[in-house]
Amino acid sequence: MRAQSLRWRLGLIGAVAILVALALSVLGLTYLFDRHVQRVAVADLEARALSVVAMIDPGGANGPTFRATQGDPLYDQPFSGHYWQITLGDEVGRSRSLWDFAFPAVTTLPPGTTRVLDLTGPKDEPLLALEQWLAVGGGPDPVALRVIVATDRRALETARRGFLSGILPFLGLLGVLLVGASWAQITVGLRPLTEVSGRVAALRSGRRPRIGDDLPREVLPLAGEIDQLLDARDKELARARHRAADLAHGLKTPLQALLGDAAQVRELGDPEIADSIEAITATMQRSVDRELARARIQSGRATAQADPQPVVARVVEVLRRTPAGAAILWRIDIPSGLSIRIDPDDLTEAIGALVENAVRHAESTVSIRAVASAKWIDLTIGDDGPGVPASALARLTQRGTRLDEAGDGQGIGLAIVADIAEAAGGDLLLRNGTTGLEATLRLERQAEDAPPRSAAWRG
């Protein structure tokens, strides 16, 4: 899942960029530190070279000669890592630290030449050396003086490692802070997309009719396209319902005419043809009635909301006025404060069909109860009739299915209820209860409705 996350992708790219930048910073800082340390070391060698040059007496009786100087512990200890060597004409002088080692001779260079060299010491250690060429003595033939002052590079490496050991923890902490800041920036930057996601969820749950335009300009095109798509869908659904209703209404009159023709055929003495016409017409009539009912099912279930208690009360009040309903004992347990995501007219039609079916098959009692969970509300209508064979339960929601051929129903009531439940995002569940058939209309609960109060309406 994280591989498909825009936040994780941006976070990974940012973290890699920060790590690369820190790595380059380490290389750059180390390079600058090395150059700085070397400049300091060369400046120190230049100062030491001046003190070494002071060992030359330019005005001796036989020309320039070496002058005796006080020993320097830095150069007196053998292999101390600090060395000097003087070449005055053919005469060579060396620090005691070199012991019996000598730097190689080179071709004489012009006076005033200064070079920084990498040499190898008496212990094969790498040395940073400063070489200076001077001319000593007056007259037309001054004596060439070569001065080499060297120091062990391992001291510079030690300083370099100390620098790295000091800066790496700091850069590590800086990297953590930068990655955290980058993650915070990405989170804040993607918050409008999270807002869009929340509004899409609100669209689905019915808390918003449209996404709206009070969003950052970068996501406004996306929000606008979604809203336009919803507008186009609603218009297309409305046109489709109107076309279905027009078609169904257009067929009702010809079907009534066919029934009239069948009656005339029966009067003319041909009952078999009349029965055939009536059977075909009844099948077509059931299809037309079902399409009319489906055309009436509301499409905007996301914004629809209905309280089942008053809906059930109205349906029961109407049926109580009928002879069959007046003879029924009604057991109703509907908590107040429920809110279902469905159009009230659709809920009325679905409950009406289920309750009429229960009254038709009940012996003496019809029960209606509602049970609410976190997401669903189950409206169960049961009767104390004979029930339905288990093998026939799955066929009850199929169009035209009538288990009671003696009745005057058309076999589309439960099919229409199933269509309404499906359009509302719910389901119709049929089962045989302890006594008779139980039909459960499972519909989605509005997220913002209040929890049911303890008081319930009972019939």
SSE order and pairing:
Layout (H helix, E strand, L loop, with lengths): L5 H48 L2 E2 L7 E2 L6 H4 L5 E7 L2 E4 L19 E7 L5 E11 L6 E10 H53 L14 H48 L3 H26 L11 H13 L2 H4 L2 E7 L8 H18 L3 E8 L3 E8 L29 H11 L3 E6 L4 E8 L11 E2 L2
Parallel strand pairs: 8-9
Antiparallel strand pairs: 1-2, 3-4, 3-7, 5-6, 6-7, 8-13, 9-10, 10-12, 11-12
Q: What report would you give on this structure?
A:
With 459 residues, the chain is α+β, with helices and mostly antiparallel strands. It has three domains: 11-158; 232-296, Helix Hairpins (Orthogonal Bundle); 308-457, Heat Shock Protein 90 (2-Layer Sandwich). It is 49% helix and 18% strand. It is built from nine helices and 13 strands. A hairpin with a 5-residue loop joins strand 5 and strand 6. The two termini are 52 Å apart.
Provide the descriptors you would attach to this structure in a database record:
Helix Hairpins, alpha+beta, 459 residues, 13 strands, Heat Shock Protein 90, 9 helices, 6-stranded mixed sheet, disordered C terminus, 3 domains
